[in-house]
Amino acid sequence: MLRIVIAEDAVLLRAGLVELLERVGHRVPAAVGDAAALIRAVDAERPDVVVTDVRMPPGHRDEGLRAALELRGRHPGLPVLVLSQYVATAYATRLLGEGSADRGGLGYLLKDRVLEVTDFTDALERVAAGRTVIDPEVVRILLARHTAADPLRRLTPREREVLGLMAEGWNNQAVAQRLGVTEASVVKHAGNIFMKLDLDPEEGNRRVLAVLAYHNRANEEVN
Amino acid sequence: MGVAVWAAMRRPGRFLVSWWPWRAWALLVSGAGQGVLVLAGLAVGLAVGVGLSVFGVGVLVLGWTALIGIPVGAVERGRLRLVEPERLPDPHHGAARGLRGRLRERASWRELGYALAQSTVFAAVGLLFAAALAFCLLLVSAPLFILAVSPDTVMLWPGRPVSGPLDGLPASAAGLLGLVVLAYSGGLLAGAQVRLAQQLLGPRDTDLGVRVIELTRSRARLADAFEAERRRIERDLHDGAQQQLVALGMTLGLAELELAELVRRGHDTPATALVARARGEARLALEQLRTLVRGIHPQVLTDHGLPAAVAELAARHPVPVLVELELPHRLPEQVESAAYFTITEALTNAAKHADADEITVRGGHRAGALRLSVTDNGRGGADPRAGAGLQGLADRLAVLDGRLTVTSPPGGPTRLDLEVPC
């Protein structure tokens, strides 16, 4: 059972989210409609995890995302799952870039994922447990970037698959299960990935963030 | 601006036997009549206006009287074509109708000045000219005149009766000489009137400037309105239909959970499959809607600017796209969105028609302008006029004083250059 604070300005969707989460056994002490109310609610309720929309009143731009980053600053380690209408990798990389300074789970999912109730609640629980969950669609686009200087180009198709699943927040065992291989071979693939991307394998759970941050940096150099 | 009748006078011999003197005379004589009418109009308007000025309506009459130059100018621009082949353009601004608008225009006051000059100086000159012309014609026709009235005695000069038509010949010679003098002086005077009209009745550069600014503004207003409408549609779809579809899908997901619970307890029902299908359909609709909304106006462009939005575009493009785009700061919204949609169109064309396998988007902000190029290694031969999309974008850029150039020789490469000052 998790205590979850929800911020979503569409009334119908907010009510639906509350119903869905309570239906699967969680508790929602506060469900609010804008960023300021979200910050107040989190300060008051100290939830286990926050679920927030990106675009919210009053500006209808990225208030939710900014509130999430502010909350991470105020409550180190607070797990946050951002729900977005947009695939926009710019939002995801910003959340992961600025939000990953401290520990605690982070997630960036498309709103469509809510339709797969169990996938969504699984992802939420992984975030609450401190893992990083990035929407498969966003990962697909990040991995598909065709920049000449992109280090991700050096990965084999299988390594890309492994990296994609790691980005969705699965551990080695789950990745092995999904790909139908042994856990040892997943570990080997992960080692190759980190080597090809010049990353420290000791980063543990933060490795996907590191990959994305690295990707982001490489991208900035090109831009 | 030259004066045609003066130019013709540089060859005096030919001038004399050409149509020019006749045309000049026609202008001067008809101008006399018109001038008298205008003077009468002015006098009546002024009298009535001053007379009624105790009532408010007098001011109105005076106002309209001050505008007498406008119809005079319109008639004059037509009448001047007797001697001037090139018609003067109308100096008035089409949109500034009504008394107040016209009174505010300088052109109206210049025309009033012309009307005053015409109704006084040119009318007087015209009348004198008509009289002189009539007198000379009379002298020329002296022999015929004498013939006609004989056997009565005629005195061309007081106290010196003439005996026959032949005695009238010296008078004819004097008349002809007078006509020659009138031909040249008529040419000079007509030319002077043309010159004055060119100064007062035609548009000045400042009038044109005002008009161009007005046009540019109205085009910019249209473009703004168009952009605002795009955003409104995008917001409505995003806040309305999209959210409701997500909520619908979520409700279906919950229903599926309930059904799964029933199935687990042994109550099998075909509704499970139906609800699953409905949820799949909701997800498809949602995906389509998202593509549509992105095509209308991408939120990432608003929030993160052009490079992020173009990177996004490149990432989901079927052909590899290399992006080298460097901008030191955010650009004006209109410029960003025009550039974004131009790049979108170029990428779409490259994938659809050019058969390219590599596209480069390069650019930055240099020397006070956003300069961008999109190059593909495809087969070329693109006709920018054929694509309504590019044409529309070029129009949109033109509003911002920008330019779009497409070079696409057969065999490639196709290169699209964009330049917008900002």
TrEMBL record, chain A:
One of its GO terms (molecular function) is DNA binding. Keywords: DNA-binding, Phosphoprotein, Transcription, Transcription regulation. The modification 4-aspartylphosphate is found at D53. GO terms for biological process: phosphorelay signal transduction system; regulation of DNA-templated transcription. Residues 3-126 form the Response regulatory domain. SMART domains: HTH_LUXR, REC. Residues 148-217 form the HTH luxR-type domain. Gene3D superfamilies: 3.40.50.2300, Winged helix-like DNA-binding domain superfamily/Winged helix DNA-binding domain. The keyword Transcription applies. PANTHER family: TRANSCRIPTIONAL REGULATORY PROTEIN NARL-RELATED (PTHR43214:SF24), TWO-COMPONENT RESPONSE REGULATOR (PTHR43214). This is Putative two-component system response regulator. It comes from Kitasatospora setae (strain ATCC 33774 / DSM 43861 / JCM 3304 / KCC A-0304 / NBRC 14216 / KM-6054) (Streptomyces setae).
UniProtKB/TrEMBL annotation, chain B:
It catalyses: ATP + protein L-histidine = ADP + protein N-phospho-L-histidine. It comes from the Bacteria. Gene3D superfamilies: 1.20.5.1930, Histidine kinase-like ATPase, C-terminal domain (3.30.565.10). The keyword Phosphoprotein applies. The chain crosses the membrane at residues 24-48, 54-75, 120-149, 169-190. Keywords: ATP-binding, Kinase, Membrane, Nucleotide-binding, Phosphoprotein, Transferase, Transmembrane, Transmembrane helix, Two-component regulatory system. One of its GO terms (molecular function) is ATP binding. Residues 229-301 form the Signal transduction histidine kinase subgroup 3 dimerisation and phosphoacceptor domain. Residues 338-421 form the Histidine kinase/HSP90-like ATPase domain. The keyword Lipid biosynthesis does not apply. Its EC number is 2.7.13.3. Coiled coil: none annotated. Residues 28-201 form the Putative sensor domain. GO terms for cellular component: membrane. This is histidine kinase. It comes from Kitasatospora setae (strain ATCC 33774 / DSM 43861 / JCM 3304 / KCC A-0304 / NBRC 14216 / KM-6054).
